[in-house]
Amino acid sequence: MKEIIFATHNKHKLQEIQSILKDSFTVLGLEDMGYYEEIPETAQTLSENASLKSQCIYKHFSSNCFADDTGLEVAALGGKPGVYSARYAGEDCIAEHNMMKVLEELKGVDNRKARFVTIISLWLNGQEHLFEGSVSGSITHEKHGEKGFGYDPIFIPDGYEQSFAEMPAALKNATSHRALAVKKLAKFLVSH
Ligand code: IMP
């Protein structure tokens, strides 16, 4: 079976992708490779950040690999928090603070439109390929649900009445921005 490195320390993401690619690829996380450093995410866009991470690991191991980056883009906030989603309320902040900041900034705002976007950068045999998955929806007025992570309690995807944090995990994981990007990656990898 062919091997590919996923440039992440996040075990949850690794398992999700391993299960999607299990018939065609052995996917190794950074811990599996004995790589414990954090890769800086210093770029101004999601795709540049995904590229930074995949290039760093491609150079280090000279081996095919991919990396992802995700952001929540809120229309009334001009696309913020976007690339700053993980640290919107400040360095070392927790998800709760990020959500509260978005809800506070949207107080009294009628336009609640938002979308989650995931970009995956793949380095395969010396060439980069980018894959995007996105889900449109709206920001709630308060938190709903306990499941998921990050901004899930304040995001309702279009076509549903539950927030991502109220949905069964299997439904979120099959329909999410990340799932859509990963499915494109999987289709590409299987045919190359
Ligand atoms: P990352 O690029 O996957 O590390 O995501 C950056 C930030 O976006 C995370 O810290 C989360 O706050 C948020 N995020 C990423 N994916 C999701 C998701 O599926 N639901 C809710 N928040 C997410």
Question: Main attributes?
Answer:
binds inosinic acid, 192 residues, single chain, Maf protein, alpha/beta
Q: Write out the distinct hetero groups bound to the structure.
A: inosinic acid
Q: What do we call the CATH topology?
A: Maf protein
* Count of distinct structural domains: 1
Helix percentage range: 25-40%
Distance between the termini: 14 Å
Strand content: 15-25%
Strand order of the largest sheet: 2-1-3-4-5-6
Extended strand count: 6
Taking the sheet with the most strands, its summary is: 6 strands, mixed
CATH classification, class level: Alpha Beta
Taken from the alpha-carbon principal axes, the silhouette is globular
Sketch the topology as an H/E string, one letter per element. Answer: EHEHEHEEEHH
Our Rg estimate from Cα atoms comes to 17 Å
Q: How confident overall, as mean pLDDT? A: 94
Q: Give the low-pLDDT segments.
A: none
* Category by helix and strand content: alpha/beta
**Based on the structure given, which CATH architecture is correct?**
Alpha-Beta Complex
Total helical segments: 5
Describe this entry's structure for a reader.
This protein has 192 residues and is of the alpha/beta class. Helices cover 31% and strands 24% of the residues. Strands 2-1-3-4-5-6 form a 6-stranded mixed beta sheet. The longest helix has 16 residues, at 46-61. It is globular. It binds inosinic acid (IMP).
Short précis:
By secondary structure, this protein is of the alpha/beta class. The chain is built from 5 helices and 6 strands, in the order E-H-E-H-E-H-E-E-E-H-H.
